[in-house]
Amino acid sequence: MAESEKKEEIASEVLTEETLDNIQHVNNPVLDVPAIEKKYLGKPTSYVKSNNAFIFSDGKASVEVKVFADEIIRVRLAPQSSFLDDFSYALKKDLDLHPTSFSLEETDDAYLVKTAVVVCRIQKADFLVVFENVEGKVFNADHKPLHWEENVDFGGYYVYCTKKATADEAFFGLGDKSSNLNLRGRRFSNWNSDTYGFGFNQDPLYKTIPFYIGVTGGDAYGIFFDNTFKTFFDFAAEKNDRTSYWSEGGEMQYYYIHGPQMMDVVKRYHDLTGTHYMPPLWAIGYHQCRWSYYPEANVRDVADQFRKRQIPCDAIYLDIDYMDGYRCFTWNKRYFPDPKKMIADLAANGFKTVVMIDPGIKVDEDYWVFKEGKENRYFCRRGDDYFMEGYVWPGRCQFPDYTNPKVREWWGTLYRGLVEDGVAGVWNDMNEPAVFGRGTFPGDVRHYYEGFRGSHRKAHNIYGMQMVRSTYDGLKKLQRNKRPFTITRAAYAGTQRYSSVWTGDNIATWEHLRIGILQLQRLSVSGLSFCGTDIGGFTGEPDGELYTRWMQFGVFSPFMRVHSAGDTRDREPWSFGPEWEAICKKFIELRYKLLPYIYTAFWRQHKYCEPILRPIALLEQEKASNLQREEEFAFGHNILVSPVLNPGQQSKIVYLPEGDWYYYFDNTIYHGGQELQIDTPLDKMPIFVRAGSVIPEYPVMQYTGEKHIDALRLNIYFGERRQDSDLYIDHGDTFAYEQSVYNEKHFIVEGKKDCLTVMQNQEGLYNERFDTYKIYFIGLPFNVNKIDVDGVSISVLRDEDNMPYFSVEKEFRKLTIA
Ligand code: MIG
Q: Is residue 557 part of a domain?
């Protein structure tokens, strides 16, 4: 049955009186309601200091300006001078931010809150807030004073902020939006929604990341509007000279984040909201998914096929059909009579098993999860304390209130059985939350909200995040401190601390391949670097070419998983015939060769807050307002890719940023700062390596950890500019890295016409199992006469393919070849 039919079948049961109420409400005619008057701040007349903050008042309303760091300042508005509870799900615990110094200076026309880097000017004439650097260049300025409106729906306020937009200003960020990279000229809203088969520019989608980056005059800043209600953004769309953001409730509360580099804005956003935990190494291998692989024989067969065809794969997924009547934490024993045995056999063959868990718990008095939830009042309730029900896959369901720490704790323990069965990772779906028929929960549903309490209007956008947080914490305990693997569809700012994400139910079209490339770049600069699309498209049928091109992009997606809807044809890498299989195999192998490089990129994200995918605008910020090649991006520090986006495409124009670049497949060197026409035969795509980089490479393995590595291969690309590269190695699945049990190596490569030096230093307590590097040099412009490693001469060796290489002790500090 097609997904839409299944949904309709279940939704047809949904017309209870309650739903009819809602429908009537929606259908009420809008009568002639006069426009509601907005109130604006008056002139600031006084201020008080409190710790790192200054509170300005116009006599009635107050604005708090709080200095978090030299480059991070928060602005809050209290229309009646009483600020709301200072609590946020987005911020990481133990925020470790301090300004080096700050002060307040009063002039005739303004109050100046100054840090070592930023001046926040509060104008006396009109209460406009302006952010400048210390040299006086304006980065971001109010167009109007902060304003609000009595919220006629449910008390509180609608809150608004309107900023000036300069003529060249470009906007990036905002999570999973399916629009062009530069958001200018568009309006968006944030209300996590199950958007099966979404389209280009459709909005809202699954995630709420109310953070954007503005680039004006070549300089970048960020705004993080930390408000969980339904929020809205207008990027110079209504009026070309202004950008606004507003919300249907909560507080006007935003962080101004200074650049001037986009990279620094993203890093500072991570300083507030945290980075991704280190995923287990296997989680960044290739994953095969399907709605659904069942019964057991089918799962085993798919796994066997991978090994037989020698196509690497680390994980296989079980979608909802593994459950007994879609009851979470149960097995359908007809399909899976002995899950423990199956999972153990898969594990012995190098496969991890990942299973889906949804939030909807079937109303069934004989089902222990329902009983426990009901007895302990763990499920969400309506305003009158009556339980709340909705229809999802299991039929009638109730839904845990994950905003209650007790509920999260309980939910975390429910995974015990699955973990004992050997399940290695968990996939949380439908957590927008999605409810058939009515979309989501009614607005009056109550949430505990960490003790601060609130309705679903306030909790909706963080529901999925709190669900996967509870999953993550639960798994972490149950797996005895092995790193969990979690993936979620819904998210709010900060979800990266608990989970990876995918972009939901996309479509098997070339347009969607492009949309996915935009979404992943956007997610990456919005804090959610561990992201992926359903490779091949969830719904619809790709042909071999689209599937293969998408697989090529998948190699450079931080999360690499093929997935598809239940009513589509087979989607394994061999499903489209041998010609396509061979190319897919070659590209999946490339993923496995690059694993040490990719793992290093994840470490750089975790430790140094660097996004994994980097749009051209981030590499060369002056290109931001006139971005031409939106689908091109850097993958980590040293690789640039430009996926092929059209059927039958023979070649494509690629822009190479400044510097020299090697074409990956034949090591031709190109000068950057220009556009080039690159051939795109089906078994290749434009992949370029930055000159001067060190790219570590694993031998092809069928799954991570399959082979012991005796000598780690390093490919060193000659370059004349001094260039940095990194390499990170650890156990691959423990939290020992938190105690410095890792090895982080740093390389500096510098070439001259007739010699090349490579310097290495390292830190950390982990001792890798290999002793030597097998070093290959690429692009040397001279003949090698002498190789010197820390004062000792060595000679060139030849590998089994007669390629020259050097065997070097892993502790080397300086290597010179001339
Ligand atoms: O209503 O679990 O986005 O990945 O395969 C559809 C079945 C529910 C939606 C997810 C998709 C998953 C599907 N789910």
A: no
Which of 459, 427, 435, 507 has the alpha carbon at shortest distance from 178?
507
Picking from 690, 717, 742, the residue at the C-terminal end of a domain is 690
Preceding amide of 279 cis, omega within 30: no
Does residue 538 lie in a domain region?
A: no
Q: Is 505 a catalytic residue?
A: yes
In a domain, 674, yes or no: yes
Residue 2 has pLDDT above 90, yes or no: no
Give the CA distances from residue 299 to residues 305, 323, 335, 339, 341, in Å, rounded to whole numbers and listed in that order: 10, 15, 10, 11, 13
Q: Which atom of ligand 1 is nearest to the CA of 566?
A: 5
pTM of the model: 0.95
| DSSP-derived secondary structure for 640-705 | EE----STT--EEEEEE-SSEEEETTT--EEESSEEEEEE--TT---EEEETT-EEEEPPP-SSTT
**What digits encode the pLDDT tens for the residues 274-286?**
999 999 999 999 9
Same domain as 165, residue 196 = yes
Helix, coil or strand: residue 464: helix
Q: Which residue has the tokens 């981030």?
A: 618
pLDDT per residue as tens digits for the range 210-240: 999 999 999 999 999 999 999 999 999 999 9
Is the distance from the beta carbon of residue 321 to the nearest atom of ligand 1 less than 6 Å? no
Q: How far is CA 278 from CA 630, 696, 733, in A?
A: 28, 19, 8
- For 184-252, strand residue ranges (E) read 186-190, 207-208, 211-216, 219-225, 231-235, 242-247
What is the Cα–Cα distance from 786 to 128, expressed in whole angstroms? 66
What's the pLDDT band for 30 if we cut at 50, 70, 90? low
Q: Does the pLDDT of residue 701 top 70, yes or no?
A: yes
Range of the structural domain that residue 251 is part of: 38-88+96-273
Q: Which of 44, 48, 75, 49 is nearest to 61 (CA)?
A: 44
Does 408 sit in the ligand 1 pocket, CB within 6 Å? no
Does residue 756 share a domain with residue 632? no
- Whether the pLDDT of residue 5 is over 60: the answer is no
Q: For residues 154 and 789, which has the higher predicted lDDT (pLDDT)? A: 789
For the chain, the farthest-separated pair of C-alpha atoms sits apart, in whole angstroms, at 88
Residue 11: the pLDDT is 47
* Interval between CA 294 and ligand 1 midpoint (Å): 15
358 lines ligand 1 (CB under 6 A): no
Distances (CA, A) of 487 to 345, 356, 481, 524: 24, 9, 18, 15
In angstroms, the Cα distances linking 181 to 171, 177, 226, 556, 687 are 8, 9, 22, 18, 21
The average pLDDT across 729-741 equals 96
Question: Quick one: pLDDT at residue 28?
Answer: 47
In a domain, 441, yes or no: no
In this structure, the answer to whether residues 622 and 758 fall within a common structural domain is no
Residue with tokens 């008042």: 57
- Residue 522 Cα distances to 176, 273, 483, 516, 538, angstroms: 6, 16, 26, 10, 20
Closest residue to atom 12 of ligand 1, CA basis: 291
- Is residue 36 over pLDDT 70? no
